[in-house]
Design goal:
The complex is a heterotrimer of chains A (109), B (198) and C (495). Chain A is built from three helices and no strands. Chain A has helices at residues 10-36, 40-63, 69-108. In chain A, helix 1 packs parallel to helix 3 (69-108). Chain A is 83% helix and 0% strand. Mean pLDDT of chain A is 89; it is low at 104-109. The longest helix of chain A has 40 residues, at 69-108. Chain B folds into two domains: 8-38; 49-179, Cytochrome Bc1 Complex, Chain D, domain 2. Helices cover 37% and strands 11% of the residues of chain B. Chain B has helices at residues 10-38, 84-100, 132-144, 166-179; strands at residues 54-61, 66-74, 108-109, 112-113. In chain B, helix 2 (84-100) crosses helix 4 (166-179) and helix 3 (132-144) crosses helix 4 (166-179). The longest helix of chain B has 29 residues, at 10-38. The radius of gyration of chain B is 23 Å and the shape is elongated. Chain C has helices at 3-21, 30-61, 72-103, 110-133, 141-146, 158-181, 186-203, 212-247, 251-272, 285-296, 299-314, 322-345, 349-355, 359-388, 401-436, 441-449, 451-480. Chain C has a domain at 202-317. Chain C starts with a helix and ends in a 15-residue tail after the last helix. Chains in contact: A-B, A-C, B-C. The interface between A and C is large, with 47 and 44 residues.
């Protein structure tokens, strides 16, 4: 069951939903950047983005009257958007490494 | 870097892509069968076409946070009691008319379509038809000659004349009455019907 | 002037035009000559899309404009149909473009492919003429078979549906037979399976149903599963191939990542269909499913962000076609904001209850279709014209480079401007019409008459004009870029 957003919460709903996606992407971008550039400030900025995402999820959860099942969705967003960029980063490293080693063996032959 | 973890290999992702796609599609097919059977005309969510013989209302239910269609006692359309087959015939004529006249590229039906003209989901129940005694006559006249019977609500937008015949207009009204009885999970929200008292 | 003179005059004009353009088809393989035919029609339909969009936008401000001649419903239908069809033409062109190189052999059924092209183009012309001249029919089956089906996006009458399926089957045969004769690859495999789904889904939209809940159920199968699943994967295939050719990324990496993207896109997109089943009469569990998968749909976009950063950090890419790469970058941003941000803003049922069926959808639709699909097609137009000119130099310092840069700027700024204007209109509409006045007809018109809505429509018109002028500049640029260029394209080395 859902409880529709109250009129006064319209703006905060749109805003926090947009912020979740933008902060999520910004966290992903900065996280990946912190891996190729060791400047510690980038990593701090990445975690700051994630903090913004957390706040946005809390705002959306309240504005959209999440209860029951819908709270799981908030949880999935909090956990998923944190780990997805990390997982994808390692996937990038490993998939590219695979082809590097294969390339080397091909050249050896 | 010489280790090639399984989860980063091409073959692993090829298989994953296939399984994920097939799995999602299978779930969709199962849900499709369930949804189609739950929404057959004559079921709980989508009433039988003969519902056009009944009074239809749309009432807000506080505990559910949404409005629900309420089917009441007999309230004939055009003063005639239709059998299920006759009702289906009439609604079908109306539905085909709405398609052939391209209603959906100005109006929305169940919220889908274009945004140049008002939503038709609960149009039969709209307060704009003044009262229930005038409603049918107004609707027929409007559909058959929308220019002369224009309902612009202060905008300059007028529905064009689409050469709708009287029989087609009756079909459209029947179709709209039937559509207004569908359980749309509370869409549109906060809708006050022609039956509601101010 | 009589008909004969008119005929001769236009023939002479056409000959002059061909001399002026000075494009040499012998620079292209036979398969790619077919491909550019598709691109040419795509650009013409793109023009039609914007022209009829402008007329419809004008009618929002001046409702009497062309009233009873070309009503809003007709213009809007041509506007959205031209869009769907030009994008499909673009995709077919892209596939024919890469088919020979990817399979390592000539296209098997080239003659059949050419025939299919002319049949399809003829059918599209007839359909559009009937839309414009006959417009509507009586409420019976023959109207749905011959005039229009009255179902948004797939209005094409049933006879044309059947024609489209036949043409798609010929196209599909060409793809499969060519790969079978030459060689298969991961890209070829994904492409083939995706085309099966693309053609198969279309059939789901070819039946009349009185029960509108069932009708819209299947209608969304076609629209959603095309636009948010099979089209995305098709773009993934085209993009994967372009990354190899334009930036020299190694095949194995590209293939692995194509599989990853397919898993993410189909994994979130197929059941993401649920967000269209909130309010059409379908059971309540779709609220749960639709909400959940909508929250997942941005994940593939996040993956692309991370991957782009990885690549930027580990390689320094050179590319041989700057306009194409600029449009691919526009695709990344447009897709992220249009599909990701704009989509998620109004997709959860708690808020979609109020935004569904308002200008919100138009705002999202404009940015998402442009960002995700128009951009990639335009990138390919540039790739095609570069080869058509004889694989010439096409960088920022190419002659008259201001044209492609300004076309890029005007088109993007125009679409973003329209999106923002429609967003304001949609916000106001969901507020006044939906929340306050409860979606009655009176409420609808209070929202439409509101000054903020009216001025938003004026802004939309101006940004539409900006988009339109961007397109005209783009067409001029496509016709002239690389003309007289003697330098060969920059060499790309594999990374």
């Amino acid at each position: 069951m859902i409880e529709p957003v109250a009129l006064k919460d319209f703006f905060i709903t749109f805003f926090s939903a947009a912020l979740i996606i933008m902060a999520g992407a910004s966290y992903a971008l900065l996280f990946a950047w912190s891996k190729v550039n060791t400047n510690p400030r980038i990593k701090i900025a990445a975690y700051f983005s994630y903090l913004v995402l957390l706040v946005a999820v809390v705002l959306l959860t309240k504005a959209a009257n999440f209860s029951g099942y819908w709270l799981t969705l908030s949880g999935v967003m909090v956990v998923g958007y944190f780990f997805a960029p990390i997982g994808i980063w390692y996937l990038c490293v490993k998939t590219h490494a695979v082809s590097d080693t294969q390339q080397a063996t091909l050249e050896d032959k | 870097m010489n280790e090639t973890p399984l989860w980063a290999s091409e073959s692993f992702w090829k298989k994953t892509a296939i399984w994920v796609t097939a799995g999602s599609f299978l779930i969709l097919v199962v849900l499709t069968f369930d949804s189609l059977s739950q929404t057959q005309a004559g079921g709980k969510r989508v009433p039988a076409y003969s519902v056009i013989n009944k009074k239809i209302d749309y009432v807000y239910q506080k505990d559910l946070h949404k409005s629900m269609p309420v089917i009441g006692e007999t309230e004939l359309l055009f003063g005639k009691e239709y059998t299920e087959a006759e009702a289906e015939q009439l609604v079908m004529l109306g539905k085909k008319t709405t398609q052939a006249k391209n209603c959906m590229n100005c109006h929305t039906l169940l919220g889908n379509g274009a945004y140049y003209a008002p939503d038709l989901t609960k149009a039969y129940l709209d307060k704009g038809w003044v009262n229930k005694e005038m409603r049918e006559d107004m609707m027929i006249k409007f559909l058959m000659d929308p220019e002369k019977n224009a309902r612009t609500f202060g905008s300059n937008r007028k529905m064009p004349n689409l050469d709708i015949t009287e029989q087609e207009a009756k079909g459209v009204v029947a179709f709209l009455k039937w559509m207004s009885s569908i359980d749309t999970n509370g869409f549109p929200y906060n809708f006050k019907t022609i039956n509601a008292e101010d | 002037m009589n008909a004969k003179e008119l005929c001769e005059g236009s023939r002479a004009n056409y000959a002059n035009f061909i001399t002026w353009v000075a494009l040499d088809r012998s620079n292209l393989s036979a398969g790619r000559q077919l491909s550019v035919n598709y691109f040419i029609v795509a650009v013409i339909l793109f023009f039609a899309q914007l022209l009829f969009g402008m007329i419809a936008a004008t009618q929002f401000i001046f409702p009497n404009f062309l009233y009873d001649w070309l009503d809003f419903s007709v213009n809007r239908m041509v506007h959205i149909n031209a869009m769907i069809v030009w994008m499909l033409y673009g995709f077919i062109g892209c596939v024919y473009w890469l088919l020979e190189e990817e399979s390592g052999t000539d296209i098997v059924g080239l003659k059949l492919g050419k025939l299919a092209f002319w049949v399809l183009t003829g059918a599209v012309t007839i359909v559009v003429l009937v839309y414009l001249l006959i417009q509507t029919g009586a409420g019976k089956d023959s109207s749905l078979w011959l005039i229009n089906e009255g179902r948004e996006y797939i209005e094409a009458p049933r006879w044309a549906d059947i024609g489209i399926v036949i043409v798609m089957l010929i196209f599909f045969y060409n793809v499969v037979a060519t790969f079978s004769k030459g060689k298969w690859s991961g890209i070829a495999g994904v492409l083939t399976l995706d085309l099966v789904a693309l053609a198969g889904l279309y059939v789901a939209g070819m039946f009349y149903m009185t029960n509108i809940t069932h009708e819209q159920f299947w209608w969304w199968w076609v629209i959603h599963l095309w636009v948010e699943a099979t089209w995305e994967v098709l773009v993934g295939v085209i993009m994967a191939w372009s990354l190899m050719k334009l930036l020299g990324v190694r095949r194995q990496i590209v293939t692995t990542w194509l599989y990853i993207e397919v898993a993410l896109m189909f994994g979130s997109g197929i059941l993401g269909l649920g967000h269209h089943y909130f309010w059409i009469g379908t059971p309540e569990y779709w609220l749960t499913i639709g909400g959940f998968f909508s929250a997942l749909e941005p994940i593939p976009l996040v993956a692309m962000v991370v991957h782009a950063m990885y690549d930027a950090g580990s390689h320094s890419f050179k590319n041989s076609n700057h306009p194409a790469v600029a449009w691919i970058i526009a695709q990344a941003f447009g897709n992220f904001f249009g599909a990701g941000v704009w989509g998620f803003m109004h997709t959860l049922p708690q808020i979609n209850m109020f935004t569904h069926g308002t200008q919100w959808s138009a705002s999202h639709g404009h940015l998402a279709f442009f960002g995700a699909y128009a951009t990639i097609n335009i990138a390919f137009f540039y790739l095609a014209i570069q080869h058509w000119r004889g694989d010439v130099w096409m960088n920022s310092d190419t002659a008259n480079a201001w044209r492609w840069k300004w076309a890029l700027g005007l088109l993007n700024a125009g679409v973003v401007g329209m999106t923002v204007a429609l967003l304001i209109a949609g916000y106001e509409q969901s507020f006044i019409e939906r929340a306050v006045e409860g979606s009655t007809w009176g409420g609808y018109f209070s929202a439409q008459n509101h000054p903020s809505f009216q001025s938003a429509m004026v802004w939309r018109w101006f940004f539409g004009l900006m988009t339109f002028s961007g397109l005209i500049l783009l067409i001029w640029d496509l016709l002239t870029i690389g003309k007289g260029e003697t330098r060969k394209a920059q060499e790309i080395v594999e990374h």
